[in-house]
Design brief:
With about 120 residues, the protein is mainly beta. About 15% of the residues lie in helices and about 50% in strands.
Length: about 120
C-alpha cells in the first residue's frame, strides 16, 4: 500500500511540473506609447494575455479604439512573436513569459514593457 501511495505521489508531482499541465497564468500591461510620432506618448494602452499549454492568447486596446486580439505559440525559451493586422498596417507583437515577463508592440507607435502577473 505504501509503495502505491509513493508512486501516486511521485506521478502527481511530475504531472504538476509538466508545462502542459501548469495552471494558466494571466499577465497585464498598462502604459503610454513611444516611437515615431510625437503623438505616441499621448496614446494610452491596455494589454492582457493568458499563457496556457504552450500558447499565449490575449488582446490590447488603445483607449477609444478597437480591441485587437492575438494568439501565438510559446517557444521553449518562453518567447512568442507574430504580426497582427490592424487598419491599414501591422502591429508586431513580441514577448516572453516566465521569470522576466515582458511584451513589446511595434508599429505606428511602440508600446510595452514588463508584464504584471495576475
Amino acid at each position: 500500500m505504501r509503495t502505491i501511495l509513493t508512486t501516486l505521489t511521485i506521478a502527481l508531482g511530475v504531472a504538476a511540473a509538466t508545462p502542459g499541465w501548469a495552471a494558466p497564468e494571466k499577465y497585464t500591461w498598462d502604459g503610454h506609447g513611444g516611437g515615431k510620432s510625437n503623438k505616441c506618448p499621448t496614446y494610452s494602452m491596455h494589454i492582457e494575455l493568458v499563457a496556457d499549454a504552450g500558447k499565449v492568447s490575449g488582446w490590447w486596446q488603445q483607449k477609444g479604439r478597437t480591441v485587437r486580439k492575438f494568439d501565438f505559440a510559446v517557444g521553449a525559451d518562453g518567447g512568442f512573436a507574430g504580426p497582427v493586422s490592424i487598419d491599414g498596417g501591422t502591429m508586431n507583437v513580441k514577448g516572453t513569459i516566465g521569470a522576466d515577463p515582458a511584451i513589446a508592440l511595434t508599429g505606428y507607435c511602440d508600446f510595452g514593457g514588463k508584464l504584471k502577473k495576475g
